[in-house]
Amino acid sequence: MARIELKTREQMRVMAQAGVIVERALAAAKAACVPGASTSAADAEAARVIAEAGATSNFLGYHGFPATICISVNEEVVHGIPGDRVLTDGDVVSIDCGAVVDGWHGDSAISFIVGEPVSDADAKLVTVTERSLWAGIAALAGASRIGEVGAAVEDVAEAAGLHPLDGYVGHGIGTAMHMEPDVPNYRTRGRSPHVQHGMCLAIEPMLVIGTSESAVLADEWTVVSLDGSRAAHWEHSVAVHEDGIWVLTASDGGASRLVPLGITPVAP
Ligand code: MG
Ligand code: MG
Prior knowledge:
The chain is an alpha+beta fold.
């Protein structure tokens, strides 16, 4: 396995700058997702926020990806491409976005439902996926191995009758968006790497209502659930340092969600 990049606290603080720009870009993109709007309108909003902040997009041009966000609707799980698709009431939308400041990367994703009515099943899907993310982040705070994150995510998902998507995982992040180690959203065979101070990890549960199997569409990007059931995706980039953890892609370091779970984030 490749060496895991460990960051200084100063480097983590730059990553937090990128992270809060991503937070703002996601909020602007979400605000554009009203019934009747195209998915490309959300992309334009995210691009505007990142440019105005003086940052750059790490999605645009990534292996040829043509946009600033991934936007995935209903049975699309991740990696959907913005375009002419018009959003309608009740769509489940996941937006994934990243930004780079001085060579340091941030990566985060949110899911939500457009307009109304909102079905109970979709509301539960979005809420449980977000809750599984925070359970994974809270687990990281006390973990000795990376695998404890996935176990926590899987437990929240399965207790609610939902399933982590097979084969798609979180990742280390720093001087590149995707780095070692893998951060699975489920238990895996074998020992996972030890958690070390200086690690920054993108934790990103993708949960589905039905089968955990998926397929990639002819556009070679969009990942859909194999049975067409709906999916949600939440992600944060998280730093681990000597004094605790800090959610780099949340302006409060994750305090609003972690303190109720018994974890107080500590700024790097
Ligand atoms: Mg992402
Ligand atoms: Mg990611």
